[in-house]
Amino acid sequence: MTTADRDTPDYEQLHGQALLLRKDIIRMLGIAGSGHPGGSLSAIDYITYLYWFRLRIDPAHPDWADRDRFVLSKGHCAPAWYVALAARGYFPRAWLWTLRDIDSRLQGHPDMLKTPGVDMTSGSLGQGFSAATGIALGGKLQQQDFRVYVMLSDAELQEGIVWEAAMAASHYTLDNLIVFVDDNKLQTDGFTADIMSPNPIAEKWRAFGFETYEINGHDLAQIHDAVERCQAREGRPHAIVGDTIKGKGVPSLENQVDSHSLSKPLTEAEMAHLLAELEGG
Amino acid sequence: MIEAQPNRAMYGQTLVELGEQDPRIIVFEADIAKSTNTYRFGERFPERFFNCGAAELNMVCMAAGASTMGLIPFASTFCMFASMRACEAVRQSVCYAKRNVKIVATNAGVEIAGDGPSHQAVEDLAIMRVMANLIVLSPSDPVTTRLATRAIAAYVGPVYMRLGRQVAPVLHAEETPFEIGTMIRLRDGGDVTIIATGNMVEQALIAADELSRAGVEARVLDCHTIKPIDRQAIVHAAQETGCLVTAEDHSIYGGLGGAVSEVVAETCPVLVHRVGLADRFASSGRDYKALLRHFGLHAGAIVDQVQQALSRRRAYSRDLASPLRSSEWG
Question: Which ipTM did the prediction report?
Fold first, then answer.
């Protein structure tokens, strides 16, 4: 049972779905009182595209052996993953309101033992990508034709293990591996370029042997075009570097360092304000 | 017939045997295949052998990822790199994610001798023992290395096993029953128990012989599994022999000595003396045996600790038996 039952995406439908997911991100984080809204919002267009058009998955059978894999290496943005998994039917939407609770199925960072649809535990930056590389290697070894999609943040590229794994992915010709860099240009302490610049990002992936594309990470047509080109090219792993906006969709959060993490629950008024901003955006 | 050889050599040979039996077994390496002996698996099954180069952290995470495909990855490097450089990958991607990954590391303790403290692993047992979900093994000889390698391949879950570098004598019969989480009694005795692991088991047997000549009969236990520790064997040893001496090529903190002391403190307090490195690094040494002697990792040090423990126990008993103490307890 595949998601991709059409040749081209219905961009209007995907756009509407992304808006619904953004709203749920605000709601679940507002209730949880902590978590990472900015990076979750910047990642959601890519995740929407994957879960509503691209991935070969069956939410009723999360462990289906032939499914495409998705690994959120920037694990602190788990809310973006959880809202998509809930909306695709992996688990009840009510779980979203238990985010970060004791023994919740939705931990603060992705836990493959607790959440259906989570293909790899992540949260320590860089490790999810390295594990995804191992999954892609295992898929090749077992001659399975699924693809492994993995999302990293631009600040995550500061972790040395990212480049160890990139070297390995290229060395082992893992053309079933598709990296998406959510280049939202902000991290906990400020602008990534000021803290420890990972730039130029695309050149680095090219130098490591990746087929690399640079796109607007909020433009669903550009995402689709880049992924299509990844599918068409064999012999090298792929990297899609998406220019994105931290907090995308909520004007008061966009490009704000403070949108990286939430420090207290949102009042009903605050939540209503952010949701209204989303509608306006 | 198994002969004396480095435990790492027996590991390499057993890996090949396991690879023949189970196609799910794959091997990850970090550029020291000739030393860890995984090169033998690589020669036999090149398509199932992945050298990650000098990148241990990535090796461990890749193994974790590959395990999600139902494969059984063995990832090998030196104990020092596995437990410290790749420490957080072991915690997050292997233990927390509960992956079926076998981290088998060589050059335990000071066995790398000449390379010096930068490459000697005297902290790994303590570090790995604290990781939830991880079991920790430290076999003493080629027989138990082979049995342990087979046992961890069959066990489903995260494993760390440390192996020595130097030639290890055969201490066990080939048909020795082997079970993860138990100790093997190598020698009986009622006066004291020596619990040893890895290369110190041989030294414990030598020490027991020497003690026997001096009229002290020591029980010797080979503790090949540091976690889960064999609580029953420790409690019986404490109850039946009254005091314990642990011996390990490792820091006295947190490893075998720490594990045994925790059990004893919780169940049946008796004296525990620990042989190992006491808050210090060792040194390079061109002669491995001389290095062990210099840093007190040898039979003589075990004998010393047994005698000290026995003498303290005697003093303690006299103290308890004194009229003053008795009247105080009224």
Answer: 0.94
